[in-house]
Task: structure prediction
Amino acid sequence: MNFTKMHGLGNDFMLIYTPTTPDFTRLSALAPQMCDRHTGVGADGIAVLYPSAVADIAMRIINSDGSIAEQCGNAMRCVAKYFYERLSGLKTHFTIESKIGVQPVWIETEAGVATKVRIDMGPPILEPARIPLYLEGDRAVEQTISVAGQSFTYTAVSMGNPHMVIAVRDAAAFPVNEWGPVLETHPLFPNKTNVEFVTYHSPEEVTMRVWERGAGPTLACGSGACATVVAGVLTGQTARKAVVHLPAGDLLIDWNEQDGHVYMTGPAAFVYDGVWLGK
Ligand SMILES: N[C@@H](CCC[C@H](N)C(=O)O)C(=O)O
Result:
């Protein structure tokens, strides 16, 4: 099976392009083995790229544990760069069909190379029932959650996939691996959740670290960065446009006032092309 290793700010993926309908059951079953960092290729997930009837291309994201997620901002930027440079004939504006719908994409280029990708990540979903989260009311802003004898204040946002955003004093030093797994699987979130630990520095700047549902600690999460700025706006911590600092670089997030959609801009990179020889 041919694949291309790519990453978006260190959130890394095996991209598999197939001109026919993908066998998701097989790819989900293979994902833990392919994504294993010792005995496989090593990746946070698999991004599957295939023809779409309603957009220029379709993509689905499979987490490294084999679960299929609704959304993945970093994989979408990788898919967009791949599509722009290898399949589209250098089209700088096109659409990608994901599980959440048809998402417009814009490519910034230099000599035929995609340097930045901007994606319409759609409107955030705030109603707890649709995140999904077991909580009454129409929003989950600055709620308390208790786990293993510790309480956290969180704001929940779905970008198609669920996110719990927790403001902490120093996100860079926060023990993500200790608290991430217990919060990911908290029974309040029936489909589990991604967890972002964030420090709001100013209305325009945030530092974020993430524990991803189905993948563990990753270096970046595009949908999580979108959720972080939405949570920042809802709690009065950020402006609608802010830079999210991640361990390997920055994402620019803009929760547009006119259409209510969240726009994400950032880089994507090729690493290598390979052939998976396992079964
Ligand atoms: N890394 C992603 C999100 C990938 C899916 C996530 N782990 C989930 O299960 O929702 C991103 O960049 O958005």
